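In practice, a research group might receive sequence data for several interacting partners and want a quick structural hypothesis before committing to experiments. The following worked case mirrors that situation: the sequences arrive first, and a predicted assembly follows.
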Amino acid sequence: MKILAFSISAIVTGVLIVILNSTLVLPAPLGKLLSPQHGLWQNAEPVNKNFSESLHFTGLKGKVNVYFDDRLVPHVFAEQESDAWFVQGYLHAKFRLWQMELQTFAAAGRASEIIGKKAINHDREFRRLGMVYAAENSLKEMENDSATKSQCDNYTAGVNAYISGLSESELPFEYKLIGYKPEKWSNFKTALFLKYMSYDLAGHEEDFEMTNAKNQFSSKDFDLLYPLKSDSTDPIIPRGTVYNAPKINVVKPTTADSLYFKDSSIINIARSKPDKENGSNNWAVSGSKTLSGAPILCNDPHLGLNLPSIWYEMQIVTPDFSAYGATFPGSPAVIIGFNEHCAFGFTNGGRDVRDYYDITFKDDSRKEYWFNGQWQPTTFRIENIHVKNDAPYLDTVAYTVFGPVMYDQSFYKDSAITHKNYAVRWSAHDASNDLKCFSLLDRAKNYSDYKVAINYLLTPGQNCAFAAKDGDVAIQTQGRFPAKWRRQGDFIMPGIDSSYMWQGNIPQDETPFQYNPERGFISSANQAPADTSYPYYLGSDYPMARGYTINKKLTAMTNITIKDMMALQTNTEDAFAQMAMPLVLKYINESKLSGNASKYLNILKQWNFKDDINSTGATVFGIFWDNFEKEVWNDEFSKIKGVTSMPSKTTLLEDLLKDSSLKFIDNVNTPPVETLTDVLVSSFNTASGLLTKIEAGGKLKWSDYRATHIDHLTKLPALNHPAIVSGGGPLSINALKEDHGPSWRMIVSLTQKIEAYGVYPGGQNGNPGSRFYDNFIDRWANGKYYSLWLMTPAETGDKKVRWTMTFSGS
Amino acid sequence: MRFLTAVILVMILGFATCLLFPWWSIALAGFITILAIPLKPLQSFFAGFTALFVLWFLLSWWISSNNDHILAQRVSLLILKVNSPFLLMLFTAFIGGLIAGLGALTASFLKAKK
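A structural hypothesis for the assembly, expressed as tokens:
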């Protein structure tokens, strides 16, 4: 009897321990998680924690002192440059390990290992896009460069030194919550992280949607819907710039008119896409326009806003340079920042560098495909996707001369019916050592150093702004961009011969750039890089409004101060609404408005075109224009059976300004011919209904309606930072949206003693149990900045230094 | 008296084993203690339960106080769906108590008859 009781008790204890130690039954290993000596309580960082410590690692060549200021920003002083990268890796891991590993898992298509089978589709998509293949290619290039290899080796060693020293109780909170452990870091993971940025910034295209639209509309109509030039756009390199004849003559295939433009496939593949608004602002003003006489450079990259933030702020000082700025946990170097001589900042180039080819397989085995008049062998890459609590998923991907066949019948259902297979050609597949651009900028002294550095930045293509103490300002629309014939790659291309392949890249010395322009400033905000006199095809779909506002303001400004630049960076004017409202007011018929619509129209009439916190006009305009667009386009676009992408806001407005009886205004599903007035009235009445509900819910004020929130990467509400109160909107310089916006604001005045300001919506410590987790957010939301301290060796005794970490060889 | 001695011993062992071993070593703390100081099954369970309930409550309260309860607020919302660090401490204490109590109970069936 006692034996039985003993056995039952022992078994119950054992089973309970197993349940509480794993995620087999419960979503989190509760026992392990709650143990005060192992679990989450250990991550509850004392608010007065002392971050000072003295560490020894074999492999360090000299001494490294790290001075943390009151914001927990480390100022790393290394006797040897290699040690600086080691310490950067160590600090990234110490404060951001979970996010940097998660991002590389997502990039490599390994999310299923962490969150189980619901991520299989994500993992397949990323692997089929060739993310791992791309990272492998770039890693080779990075490791062929001895300086980059040493930098990455040391960074990796630093990350791993931290991981090796981690006890169970010191594991970052998220590992405990989900119930897994970090792997060792590697240079490959750094390459994967950088490819993730390429996915985010150089992965946007609308080729399927455009193919469908081309097949739905006449070519004349298509050009109205997706024009190649925009009258209201003020390009990065101003209109009127004279360009030389192109060095590469791109030849349109002779079959283009019959095979490419006449192809009538309808594609119905929904796919994950990087945020279309991944944009940014940067500008630099010459000394001639500033009060101090020194140039000022500003940059604010717009990215998804998450916790922990994508950025980690730090200063790195070696015998050769002293650089300060925003760094990427996952990669060595300062990415956006400044040194004692110059400052540099980036906005996304937004060119289309990802195209699809229609591949004809001989049979379902996918072993051969038709190319240049014969059957060519494919190569197979077998992707082994490990799945948490499930069997591994094996995915075989066929590779062609173009790249991986991302979409075939093993991956999307329609293929079994249409027998269409699409290979993806992406510039990120090609080897590049983009990291070297940032490493060289960190130590750049002048314009010629900048020119050498940015030539390494190939994918993602960026508009690289530069300003130096010696007075120079410059911008280059840099990247490896295929030279394309008009409309090449806007649609799915035939994959049957080499005539549709990319015929070469635009030579680096033919990328549009500006150096000390007479107007006294350079700027970019993701608008078109140049006007149509540029001899290479630039594609379309560039945003217009922010660039327009920036250039208008900068042109008018003189005696510029840092304060002026802060005001400009957080400016909330909506240039688009300003251009659209005269048209709306001219054509709307107020007597036909019903319900509350007249009230809302009056709000709109009084609106100052600013997306301010309490603005109700901004909300009215936003909702009204959305409904107007829908009413104009829905009738035509709902006839397309596949995926669609509506024309841009700018296109609709420009078309209407040119022709108020634009044919698309008419609802093709109703017998009468609607006029612009009819559609304006009807969409305003619809908007009025929505607005009435929103007002009843107390959300009519812009900031309440936009409802910006900053979520933890797990999206678990308890870890999020809710309800940001702030001005700004998608079309204003302060480009704030629901979960997307200025991810790092930086202003650098290149006076003799550099004066710099910056802020990002997050905090230095990724640990949700730290007071440094989200402590910058309020200041950021209020449009305020921190002074950025480019610390010198003489200042180690400064009272701003709160903690000191020392690293030395053992 | 034996009960109180057992409780204190489980607390000491529970704290010490967790310095070196995984969290579930608290079950062993309960188990070993009752082997050394045999008690009736129900008493054994409560000795183990009380020890770890008190130990884990005090530990978590101490740690969380130094943290201004920043993390406990988030995690209580996450796990218990209410913003209450105190409730999270009680929940922590309960799980610790339960496992140590079961460890102690198991040992009581080996010793009790002798």
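Before designing any experiment, note the following. The helical segments of chain B are 2-20, 25-36, 41-66, 70-80, 85-111. Chain B has a mean pLDDT of 94.
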